[in-house]
Structures are given as structure tokens and as C-alpha cells.
Design goal:
324 residues, mainly beta, Immunoglobulin-like, 5-stranded antiparallel sheet, 45% strand
Length: 324
């Protein structure tokens, strides 16, 4: 295969220059299944952006959905390559026993999925609650240590739980594979008080510091989905920025951060754009996310493994779903 252009069609690659890159393909799945609860039927959709969905089940005694997905847990298979698993569950809001809470409990092979790995989105689709389960390479490596030898599936569970929201200290984008660590100062949040929010962007695939300039939009929504704060066309120089927040009243808010591009040496990279979501509770005391250890290792975006094929697959699946 001859590579003639890389970023833009009018920027040709020098024929005497060698560019090394790897490409990986994940073929996902869309599964539609009606759920019956208390004699009512609810159309439910499960989207896997990694592999085929198997053994979908609903347990009415626990109000819990479960499913499995083929997965080779051998760390040698992916230790030298990026990996990102994204599962997405759509539950009708009319199924109030499942969708009326902002908090959920989830697991994969018995390991809890918590914090930035579990995102509830009641806004994107007006008639559905969307729950995202996001696992990056570090998460999977940590879990692999407790998975029995020979196990070849990821086994997921998801169920609603009583509301117990805490303020997020980190977030992951839904499809792009970027993350942002949230550093609140002071850590005790209160209404009518100025709080500085330090944003530290990282690559969710390997948790390395982003060294490019991140172009993003920032938004805070109230419990009903109304916009309280909106800042557009912001730039985090070298992957770091600070926003000042002062909310007038106590309550539960949603943070949305849309990454539009990351600029390296004047060249924008838009191959992994995405939307990160988190929770903001006023009043609350923020507990730092000790699971994120950001390494400031130089990145070379045009030499790292390219995930564009996976991203295209995601877009195709979304279009497939909403054409139906």
C-alpha cells in the first residue's frame, strides 16, 4: 500500500520519507431486545463498539441487564497496542424503575465499573436514558489479573441504584479516547463560591499527558438539562487549562466537555473528537481520582497506532441505529 497523503489530501507525503503506523479494526454490534417488567414491554438497545453481543438477559428480580462479549484477556495480546472497550445501553425513560435514577451499578467479570468508566446521559435522546461503560487499557490490564485463565469473554451487568452522586474528578470522552482530570480548588464546593477547575487532558488509551493544544467547548447543565454555563472555543495550552466556576444554588449538575481538536505543531488532529460527561454536586467535597497517574511522555501523534477505523465504525453504527 502506498501512502500519498496523511492529514489533508493536498499535503503529500515525501516519497523518500518513511512513516510507520499500525491500524486495528473492531467490528461492533447492535442488539435490540424488548424487556418485560410488571407486564409492560420496553424496547431496549445495546450497542457494543468492540465485538459481538451474546447472552443478553434481563433479571426482573434485580432490575438488572446482563450480556457477554468475546474477549481474549491475555495481556500479551494488547500490552503493546492501544485498546478501548465501549458498551452503550439505551433504556426508555418510560421504564421508570430503570431510568429514573441518575446512578447505576455495573461490573465486568465481577469487577466494579465506577467513576469515569460509567456515564449516565439523560439528555442526548429525549425519550431514553443512555448509559456508557468505558474501559481503557489500564482498566483492562488491572482486571485481567483477577480473570481466570482460559476465560474468553467480558461478562457485563448493569442495574439502577439509589441516587448517590459525587462530583467527578475525571472524565472520559464517549468515543474519542481522550480523558480529562478535574482538579477542584478548593475541594469543598459550595454555592455562591468561586471554585477554580483545573483541567488536565490525557490520552485515555495510555493515560499519557496531552502535549498538544486542546480546542474544546465547556458546558454545565442543571438537573433538567438547562444550560447554566457555556464557554465555546476554549484552548488548553499544552493540555492544561483552568476555568472559574460560581454556581448560585445547591443542586446536581452535569459537566459536558466537547473536545474538537488537538493541535500538534500547528496541525489539528480531529480523528478522535468526543464528548466527556461528569457530575457536579453542590455542596460536596471532591475526592481526587488516585487511579489516574498521568505520565508526561512526549507524544508523536502521526507515529502512534491509528484508531481511525474504529472511530469510523462507531459513526456507522450510530447512523445504522437511527435510520431504523
Amino acid at each position: 500500500m502506498a501512502l500519498l497523503a496523511f492529514d489533508y489530501p493536498n499535503e503529500l507525503v515525501q516519497t523518500n520519507t518513511t512513516i510507520n503506523f499500525n491500524s486495528y479494526l473492531s467490528v461492533g454490534d447492535i442488539y435490540n431486545q424488548p424487556i418485560t417488567y410488571n407486564s409492560n414491554s420496553y424496547n431496549t438497545t445495546l450497542i457494543s463498539y468492540y465485538d459481538k453481543i451474546n447472552n443478553f438477559n434481563f433479571d426482573p428480580s434485580k432490575v438488572q441487564v446482563s450480556w457477554s462479549m468475546p474477549f481474549d484477556w491475555n495481556p500479551a495480546r494488547y500490552k503493546d497496542r492501544p485498546i478501548f472497550v465501549h458498551e452503550e445501553v439505551h433504556i426508555p425513560k418510560s421504564f421508570k424503575e430503570f431510568s429514573s435514577t441518575p446512578t447505576y451499578v455495573a461490573s465486568v467479570n465481577g469487577n466494579p465499573i465506577t467513576g469515569r468508566r460509567l456515564i449516565a446521559d439523560p439528555y442526548t435522546l429525549g425519550d431514553s436514558m443512555i448509559v456508557h461503560l468505558l474501559l481503557n487499557k489500564v482498566d483492562i490490564l488491572n482486571m485481567a489479573a483477577s480473570v481466570p485463565s482460559g476465560k474468553n469473554t467480558m461478562d457485563f451487568t448493569l442495574a439502577p441504584t439509589s441516587a448517590n452522586l459525587i462530583t467527578s474528578s475525571s472524565m472520559l470522552t464517549d468515543f474519542g479516547g481522550w480523558g480529562v482530570k478535574l482538579g477542584w480548588s478548593p475541594t469543598q464546593l459550595a454555592a455562591n463560591t468561586k471554585n477554580n477547575l483545573n483541567l488536565d487532558f490525557f490520552d485515555a488509551l495510555n493515560e499519557q499527558q496531552v502535549i498538544g493544544d486542546v480546542n474544546y467547548d465547556f458546558k454545565i447543565l442543571d438537573h433538567d438539562g438547562n444550560t447554566v454555563i457555556s464557554q465555546k472555543d476554549l484552548t488548553a495550552k499544552g493540555g492544561i487549562d483552568t476555568q472559574s466556576i460560581n454556581l448560585p444554588s445547591n443542586g446536581i449538575y452535569k459537566i459536558e466537555l466537547s473536545i474538537k481538536s488537538i493541535v500538534y505543531n500547528g496541525i489539528p488532529d480531529t480523528t478522535r473528537i468526543g464528548l466527556a460527561r461528569g457530575d457536579l454536586v453542590i455542596p460536596s467535597v471532591v475526592i481526587p481520582d488516585s487511579s489516574i497517574q498521568i505520565n508526561k511522555v512526549p507524544e508523536f501523534p502521526f507515529a502512534i497506532s491509528v484508531l481511525l477505523i474504529s472511530t469510523i465504525s462507531v459513526i456507522v453504527f450510530y447512523r445504522m441505529k437511527f435510520r431504523k
